[in-house]
Amino acid sequence: MSMDESSQKRDSDRPAVLMDAQTRKLMAGSKIMMVDDEPINMRVLQLHLTAQGYGRFVSVTDSRLTMSTIRSERPSVLLLDLNMPDVSGLEILEQVRADPELKQLPVIVLTSSSDPETKVEALQLGATDFLPKPVDANELALRMKNTIVARAYEQRLKHFDALTNLPNRLYFSRLVQKLMKTSETANGRFGLLLFNINRFKSINDTFGSEQGDDVLWAFSQRMQVVFDHAQGISPLRRETLKTHCIARLGGARFGVLVQLGKGLVDEAVVQDWLPPLIAELEKPFVVEQQDVYVSTSVGISAIDDNARTVENLINNAETAMRRAKEQQSPSYALYSSDMMSAARRALLMENAMRTALVNEEMALVYQPKVDVRSGLISGAEALLRWENPELGFVSPVEFVPVAESTGMIVAIGHWVLESACLQAIVFRRECNPDFKMAVNVSIRQLYEKGFHQSVDEILKRTGLPPEALIIELTENMIMDDVEANIGKLSQLRDLGVSISVDDFGTGYSSLSYLQRFPIDQLKVDRSFIMEIESADEKAPIVKAIVSLAHDLELSVVAEGIEEQVQLDHISKLGCEEYQGYLKSRPISAEALQQLMLEDMKKCA
Question: Is the Cα dihedral 259, 263, 269, 270 positive or negative?
Fold first, then answer.
């Protein structure tokens, strides 16, 4: 579906006013409550309203019973006489507006008084409208209709998302609360599927918020179609899927409340039917005549002992969804109690990370990059390490995803880049004037507005020549949004820095795209190097990557070289550089400088 078509269809699906048929339906379903000490007055009102299509009425002649009747009957509109014995209409109005559950109830005041002060007081107390006695039938019909339609519109705004027309978080929460009170949920048959469109911000940044809204709307429409077609699926031939509610829970997140037959929401059941649904949702959208691919992460939680409230249910699904984002494949995860422990640790990390740089808890180590022909260190890759007094040593595998999800990776990445550039100046001055420093960049940094300008400013501030800096990105990163990334990498390349693709061979690069990327270097993933057991080993994947790189006029770095036979093998293939324990583990700046000086003495 193109965005132009979806925009037009979306506009046509948003009625500006309620149509006549809808209005009649609203009127027929509305409950009108009348409070008057004169029964004849209420009978006349009921006759007038019945002629207009209203059919549900509640009458109260004893004003003392008004509040209890309102709470039990929950009327749509209250027609309230002001002048009554025992409890006046003004007193009732004041009580209604003071009750949090009733304060939004429309109240049309009926009065024969022409005293303006009475009307002002009623307005101040929250009267919705006035009708003078004796009541004119036509005026009553008009005022009632306007009140009912306005009330329905307010309720829709309150409970439905304006962009997608789907139920919103409030509606969804109230529905789940209602379900939780029923015995049907006792065995966990209801589950929440929380869908998140990953990195949706990049679509807004690239195409603008209006086109981003079109993608959200089209995605919501596709969800309804996909789950409508999924009705009646029998996972493992023993379950029946029933979509209970699809809602937009905020931003690029959508919730689907499903009911799965008599069984529990478990891994086996989900594996059977969820992946095909996700595949349908991730089909490309057309934006400005370009295919835009979206990826989704899905977190699943069940209404059970682990989720006794709506917030528990949503938070558990959020926790599972974050796990799904971290693992990438499969793109969904079911909530389990051990995830909560991991979530608590992630929260501790997040809090500690905010002061980690100020407290000098983070440091850089460097893994040498070695020239295959000369055996000399030609550069290094800067690697971040973090040791916290409370958490101890925290692996980058653990803290980098937290930094990315919170946005702190931008500040941390800026510090890493500047620190690495400053250290590179020292290495070039003291050891090797041609030394090059490689720095890893995350997807969050790459998509930060003005990232290339930030790199340029750091280079100018530190004095490091652009050709001495290598920006490393993973293969999966650059393939995530090809067209946008080509532009962003070109901006970096224009500065004079080199671009290296890390972990190459583990992703799903298209060769047609690969030759379009402004890159300079491929790094062969260590998983392929580990398979080399002799210098004469075929290792076809390594050979193919090296051959491909050289055909594209790119240099090659082999990662994970631990044995001499591995070095001999990549040397025969023509690899330019290598990294690995054969030369050195990641070490401090001082240790690396000493290692380079020792190498220089050996060659002297």
Answer: positive
Amino acid present at 373: R
Q: In what order do the strands lie in the sheet with 296-302?
A: 241-250, 253-260, 190-197, 296-302, 332-334
Q: What is the Cα–Cα distance from 108 to 25, expressed in whole angstroms?
A: 21
DSSP collapsed to 3 states, 8-60 = HHHHHCCCCCCCHHHHHHHHHHCEEEEECCCHHHHHHHHHHHHHCCCCEEEEE
Q: What is the mean pLDDT of the chain?
A: 84
Q: In angstroms, rounded to a whole number, what is the distance separating the alpha carbons of residues 284 and 269?
A: 27
C-alpha 36/C-alpha 89 separation (Å) is: 9
Please indicate whether residue 325 or residue 361 has the higher confidence score (pLDDT). Answer: 361
Whether the per-residue pLDDT at 184 is higher than 60: the answer is no
Amino acid letter at 395? S
How deeply is 565 buried, as exposed, middle or buried, from its count of CB atoms within 10 A (0-12, 13-18, 19+)? middle
- Confidence tier at 255 by pLDDT (50, 70, 90): very high
How many CB atoms sit inside 10 A of residue 290's CB? 14
Structure-token match 């029946």, residue found: 240
Q: What's the burial of 312, exposed, middle or buried (CB within 10 Å: 0-12/13-18/19+)? A: middle
- Three-state secondary structure readout of 286-307: EECCEEECCCEEEEEEECCCCC
Direct distance between the N- and C-terminal alpha carbons of the chain, in angstroms, rounded to an integer: 67
Q: Residue 375 in contact with residue 602, Cβ under 8 Å? A: no
Amino acid symbol at 536: D
Provide the strand spans (E) within 413-515. 436-440, 469-474, 498-504
Residues 7-20 have pLDDT tens digits of 544 444 444 344 46
Do the beta carbons of residue 30 and residue 76 sit within 8 Å? yes
Mean pLDDT value across residues 25-33:
87
pLDDT bin (cut points 50, 70, 90) of residue 236 is: very low
Which class for 190: exposed (0-12), middle (13-18), buried (19 or more C-beta within 10 A)? buried
* pTM passes above 0.70: no
Q: Which two three-digit tokens encode residue 330?
A: 């499969």
Question: Which token pair is 66?
Answer: 């008004």
| Of the candidates 489, 473, 470, the residue with the CA atom closest to the CA atom of residue 576 | 470
